Amino acid sequence: MDYIKAFVIGGLICVIGQLLMDGTKLTPAHILVAFVTSGAILGALGIYEPIVEFGGTGATIPLTGFGYSLAKGAIDSVKKAGILGAFTGGIESTAGGVAAAVVFGYIMAVIFNPKSKK
Amino acid sequence: MKKQITRISKEKEYEEYVNKKVPKPAYLKNSLWAFLVGGIICTIAQFILNILRNSGLNKTDANTVTVIIMVFLGAFLTGLGIYDKITQKAGAGAIVPISGFANSIVSPAMEFKREGYVLGIGAKLFSVAGPVLVYGFGSSVILGLLYYFFTR
Questions:
Q1: Residues B113, B115, B117, B118: what is their CA dihedral angle, to the nearest 10 degrees?
Q2: For residue A91, what are the CA distances in angstroms to A72, B45, B48, B87, B141?
Q3: Looking at residue A45, what DSSP letter applies?
Q4: A62 — phi, psi (to 5°)?
Q5: Which residues are paired to B97 by β-bridges?
């Protein structure tokens, strides 16, 4: 059952991105920035949490989920550590993903060469 | 003054002409592809998450490891040239998931390898990831501060 939920929620979030790409002149980079920022805002307002509860990875794997865990990390840390938490919490909670992206990205870019486009 | 007016109207005419000529995107077809591929990517992630959870990891750690694995898969498939083919068909379905974020890191870095390891790969890794991290980290700090000042 959680597979169907992840499929539907993840698919719907991607459709929103596709409609934005087709309907406006936004580039993929703009879409990614917009999704992270709106995920963070929705996360802070407590709107994204129930979507994560329902959709599982369907909500955490799209970039809105990245924004959500940034905001959640920052707010949880503020609760524990006060104002310093606003600066440390978001990056702490996403450190694994960001470090993986940098390291794996670097390794793959060194190992592989771009394929010639046909 | 008159010259300017005619120029503006010419520009408007041209814009209308371009809008007429640019093909209308196939909204329904593109959305269906995005839904299908985006859904499949999230389902794969759910499968990985369930395995990790069953092996005894707690919820937060399991989520982090899932993200790391999806980032690895996205980066690896980009290196092999497979991910870009998926993106051509699936559009946002492949761009919006975190594996697409990995794709946006590897693609330009690979492309600019000949410019060196520092200013080529090192700099271009962040040509899309940079803005994402700036706005992501930026909004998390601002939201944290707002929370601190308004709810305590």
A1: -130
A2: 11, 22, 24, 28, 9
A3: T
A4: -60, 155
A5: A62
User: Closest approach of chain A CAs to the CA of B152, in angstroms?
Assistant: 9
The first and second tokens of residue B39, run together, are 């859904």
CA–CA separation, B111 and B91 (whole Å): 20
pLDDT tens digits, one per residue of A41-78: 999 999 999 999 999 999 999 999 999 999 999 999 99
Predicted pLDDT of residue A118: 44
From chain A, the residues in CB contact with B136 under 8 A are 36-37, 40, 66-67, 70, 90, 94
Q: What whole-number distance in Å separates Cα of residue B99 and Cα of residue B44?
A: 11
Q: Which residue of B has its CA nearest to A35?
A: B96
pTM of the complete model: 0.88
Instruction: Record the tokens describing residue A109, joined without a space.
Output: 């870019």
